[in-house]
Amino acid sequence: MKILTVLTYYRPHTSGLTVYAERIAQAFVARGHEVTVLTSQFDKSSPRRETVNGIKIIRAPVWFRLNKGVIMPTIGLLATREVLHHDAILLHLPQLDAAGISLRGRLLRIPTVVAYHSDLLLPPGAFNRLVNFVVDTANRLTARLTHRITAYTDDFAAHSPYLSAYAHKRVTITPPVELPPAPKTRVDEFRQAHNPHWQRTIGMATRFASEKGVEVLLDALPRVLEKYPNTKVLFAGQYAGVWGEQEYFDRLSPRIRKLEAEGRWEFLGVLPLEKMAEYFPNLDVLVVPSLNSTETFGLVQVEAMMNGIPVVASDLPGVRVPVGMTGMGEVIPIGDAGSLGAALLRIFDDPEKYPGDSAALRTRFSPDTAAACYERLFAEISAEISRK
Known about the structure:
Strand order of the largest sheet: 3-4-2-1-7-8-9-10
CATH topology of the largest domain: Rossmann fold
Helix content: 40-55%
Radius of gyration: 21 Å
């Protein structure tokens, strides 16, 4: 099968959405399919066309940015050319261009599936309200035209205005999570490099963005440090130059710089997969204090749990699912720094209270399992189309 995957941001961009798309694409290739990714050339240094790990990548030039979205004048032409040569289409939303591509799939009778990753919630302001309206309109048109829409969890789907409106098209597919085991020597080397004094470690693995709740962790730390002064935060992910987040970063920087000077905070930057495999075993706990429905699951939660690391997550639809499913951590009210601090202390006080089954998690969240679900979905849609 030839599968066309379309999304706004792909590698080298790093986010939960791009990681999901990459893992599914790689799993398709491993199962014998041909995969093309159509995306934006958001970074002009990236080539227009290349093949990486068996995945053909086509990048459309970006004319200008619209908040976190991009305008690509040639995306329609590129999409038409590629749709004509593929057997199935997988679109990743939110994405401004998805409606036109789903229309092509409908007209050409090609099975088209939307993977819905999150709602779009921009900060207040007239311009952002306009952007929200445009994207919401495009997403709803896409939903009408596509054959199926997938969600990470039933929990998020039931609470999302978008997904709940199209329940008749919705299918839940567990997101793909994989993390290669790291040799103990490499785990020890990572600790020696980033935590040589064996401090208690709180991990946060995400982009430095306002919806991720970095300030919630900052507000919770004084209570934790009062009881456990030998505690350090290891922040893995992009923290400098995150598009649209400079003001947020600047606002929190003075507090973080003070913690850095005290040896209680370290930015690790974006880590490759093999380094993330060394990172998680060096944590005592991972926090996911997200603030709104732009976070729908948090793949890093499962990655941490695969390493036996408990998690503290916000009580958001979808985000609370991994802890509820495994018992490996605590769920706290959204934006509640006091509850986050208390949960961290409970985990530090009694870490044995949060055991997990790493092998079962690896099987349930295998990219191959998710890819097989998409295969069956494409086959089901193809059969429906042929009967019409």
